[in-house]
Amino acid sequence: MRTQVGIVGGGPAGLTLALLLERQGIECVVLESRSREYVERRVRAGLLEHNTVSLLHELGVGDRMGREGLRHGGIYLRRQCRTTHIPITKLTGRHITIYGQQEVVKDEIAAWCERGGALHFEVPDVAVGDLESDRPVIEFTLEGSHERLECDFIAGCDGFHGICRAALPDGLAVHYDYEYPFGWLGILADAAPATDELIYAWHERGFALYTMRSSTISRLYIQVPAGERLEKWSDARIWQELQIRLASEGWSVNEGPILEKGITPMRTFVCEPMQFGNLFLLGDAAHIVPPTGAKGLNLAVNDARLFAEALSSFYTSGSRSALDAFTETALRRVWRAQDFSNYMTQLLHDLGRGPFDRMLQLSRLDYLGQSTAAAHSLAENYAGLPAAPDF
Ligand code: FAD
Ligand code: DHB
């Protein structure tokens, strides 16, 4: 088997890349280890930046998002029953859209299949090799038989636990990483959101986030200690904690049946370089941000955009210069998102460092309510900086 670009992983990075390449007439094959049903149901991110929304529309996969996505013009920051509104659209002219990651994935898979794209699900034993040659290879098992896919390039879009990053030679990459001493317990509930926009709440007991998926489905998160066991959190205890941390005078969180719950560890990670020979890493395969800035999915889509541009330049002009600069170009945005995600995390979570740090956090939250300059800085990072590599 032979293709131009072999894509390992059918998440947002891999699928967006496939759709971008198809538009440029570059052939590719997507290999996904999980079933279609599994990837279409995996509940994860929900907040799309302005740039991400525009790109999905350009790719012709934005119709349902346009109808069902919730377009927001700001966010709330809450602490000690006081709420500050950050008017993102007023400050930046840009919007954010709430639309579940699994809905993006569903729309992308449907469009890719409808356009006749090659996508194989439930592909085990994926391995990559000959990365420095001009014929790198992906080996895998398909319906019981061993296959070899020769490519010009391999895109490692296989997430944080995938095999592609591990294929970089020992000692080549620097890993910048940090694991926070807490995680997020997230729920999806059959309850109408009691808020029109997202609420990020600071509380002595820990952070809470009120977000949503539709006018009838709420998504909520609370900070829990690292390594926390889900069994310790009955539905009643989760609601009680959410009511305390999100409290505001004369208002409460709308409760309802919990449809899904899970705990995510909180880490920050960057692999540099994001490439070796003709293997390129995109999205979570190369970097993880703490979710407080809502950047992970948006970075994955942006990596796909940059890599597709570099490939297009290679196939039209024969020049490798954009491909050679991929790490540098992508990491500029990644580090901006790292800084913002870590800033939001440290602004809002119980960092376990005692009263001095808590007072600094409260002062910063006050400042965001008082100063348009401070609010503007948060707003432009949250909505996503413009797409040009020089920002
Ligand atoms: P993934 O979505 O992980 O996709 C990788 C794919 O590769 C998967 O389908 C996997 O099955 C497949 N794969 C793995 N190994 C192999 C293999 N060996 N062979 C073939 N296929 C393989 N981001 C935001 O932007 N906004 C948010 O609001 C937000 N909130 C989040 C909330 C939570 C609770 C979590 C957990 C994450 C959140 N994120 C958010 C982050 C976001 O979900 C990820 O950054 C995003 O999924 C990255 O996309 P990706 O395509 O790089 O990787
Ligand atoms: C969502 C998740 C986030 O991490 C975030 O910062 C905002 C929204 C969400 O799941 O909707």
User: What is the strand content?
Assistant: 25-35%
Main pleated sheet: 8 strands, mixed
Structural class comes to alpha+beta
| Rg over C-alpha atoms, rounded to the nearest angstrom | 21 Å
- If helices are DSSP runs of H or I spanning 4 or more residues, what is the number of helices? 12
E-strand count: 20
Characterize the overall form: globular
Order the strands across the largest sheet as they lie in space. 6-5-14-15-16-13-17-20
Task: Measure the end-to-end span.
Answer: 40 Å
Arithmetic mean pLDDT: 96
Helicity, as a percent range: 25-40%
Poorly predicted sequence stretches spanning 5 or more consecutive residues: none
List each distinct ligand once.
Answer: flavin-adenine dinucleotide, 3,4-dihydroxybenzoic acid
Characteristic key phrases:
single chain; 391 residues; alpha+beta; globular; binds flavin-adenine dinucleotide; binds 3,4-dihydroxybenzoic acid
Structure description:
This protein is an alpha+beta fold and 391 residues long. It is built from twelve helices and 20 strands. The protein has helices spanning 12-23, 36-41, 50-58, 63-68, 88-92, 101-114, 235-245, 296-317, 321-324, 326-348, 355-370, 372-383; strands at 5-8, 28-31, 47-48, 70-72, 75-79, 82-86, 96-98, 118-120, 127-129, 137-142, 145-150, 153-156, 174-189, 199-202, 208-212, 218-225, 258-272, 275-276, 279-281, 287-288. The strands form four sheets. An eight-stranded mixed β-sheet has the order 6-5-14-15-16-13-17-20. The protein is globular, with a radius of gyration of 21 Å. It binds flavin-adenine dinucleotide and 3,4-dihydroxybenzoic acid (DHB). Residues 8-14, 31-34, 39, 44-47, 101, 123, 126, 157-159, 162-163, 184, 186, 264, 283-284, 291, 294-298, 300 line the site of flavin-adenine dinucleotide.
